[in-house]
Amino acid sequence: MLSRKRSSMLHGILLIGLFSCAAFYIGDAQFFREISFSPMIIGIILGMLYANSLRNHLPETWVPGIQFCSKKILRLGIILYGFRLTFQDVLNVGTAGILVDVIIVVVTIIGGVFVGRLLKMDKDIALLTSIGSGICGAAAVLGAESTIQTKPYKTAVAVATVVIFGTISMFIYPIAYRAGILQLSPDEMGIFAGSTLHEVAHTVGAGNAMGTEISNVAIIVKMIRVMLLVPVLLVLGYWVAMRAKKGDGSAQKGKVDIPWFAIGFLVVIGFNSFNLLPQPVVDCINYIDTFLLTMAMVALGAETSIDKFKKAGPKPFVLAFILYVWLLGGGYLLSKYLAPMCL
């Protein structure tokens, strides 16, 4: 019986693995590479297509394998994501980038939760959307989802919002900068792009379109923003525990569940800072990590039907738009006036 259960679970994992391979193949096409659509984004789209077509025609015994990908493999992917970062990155960008990043992240998350309450929208979706907008898009949403343990469709809705607005920005920033609309120096523009663009892929795409000088600063500032995911998840874990305790008054229920994968993420960054591994090995790990995160995205998409998007309604996109306006306006002012004081 146990062997049959494991076999069925393996079928679910292999299914997600096949979809992930397809996402990598599609993502390698010239069109998707030019618009910086990562395999992760393509993966969640494929997962949603599956959820709304073949989902009801496959054995339910495969579901545990799909859920394994959206939980366990996701956490491993978040930990290995640390190989993209080093603490030297923080030192290279200096106080200006760190300060702007911290303000952007704190105001976006707290402000997003507050606006979500005003809109009377689902608390989990508001939180995930705010964290995705404030930190690093889909990866941040996935990390937060692992901490609060919410329903997959809520995660998919949040990911959809950050992908839409992040993609728009990736095209707007280079055009606005080259047209002279954004009166920023190269360093200031790098800080602006790195502190406000949603996805790492969006930052790389927009940065490359504006030149190496801007791109280098933008990517480092973005990586510092990614590092802020660790303290955010620790605070989030404490908040989830306190909310549970308040809900039923149980001390055991209110025990703080530390997101150990976030600690693992930080440890990996520390290890990577010593530059002990050859660059080809690190590149290989990053490639594997992207595949693992793509599997998690496919699995989340596989649990998300159109009906669940309808259930969420337009409010998540309204919230994401409000946060987008803040990122544009607030990020510009911080990069224009605060950053030069620290450079």
Features of the shown structure:
UPF0324_YeiH-like, 343 residues, mainly alpha, 80% helix
Low-confidence stretches: 249-254
Overall strand count: 0
- Straight-line distance between termini: 64 Å
- Our count of helices gives 16
Assign an overall shape: globular
Beta-strand content estimate: under 5%
CA-atom Rg in angstroms: 20 Å
Order of helices and strands: HHHHHHHHHHHHHHHH
User: What is the average per-residue confidence, as pLDDT, rounded to a whole number?
Assistant: 84
Q: Roughly what percent helix?
A: over 70%
Domain unit count: 1
Subcellular location: Cell membrane
Protein name: YeiH family protein
Family: Belongs to the UPF0324 family.
Transmembrane segments: 12-29, 35-52, 97-118, 125-144, 156-176, 219-240, 260-277, 317-335
Topology:
Layout: H1 2-27, H2 30-34, H3 39-51, H4 63-80, H5 87-118, H6 123-134, H7 138-148, H8 152-178, H9 186-196, H10 200-210, H11 212-227, H12 229-248, H13 260-273, H14 279-302, H15 306-312, H16 315-342
Helix pairs in contact: 1-3, 1-4, 1-14, 3-14, 4-7, 4-13, 4-14, 5-6, 5-9, 5-11, 5-16, 6-7, 6-8, 6-16, 7-8, 7-12, 8-10, 8-16, 9-11, 9-16, 10-11, 12-13
Keywords: Cell membrane, Membrane, Transmembrane, Transmembrane helix
InterPro entries: UPF0324_pro (IPR018383), UPF0324_YeiH-like (IPR004630)
Subcellular location: Cell membrane
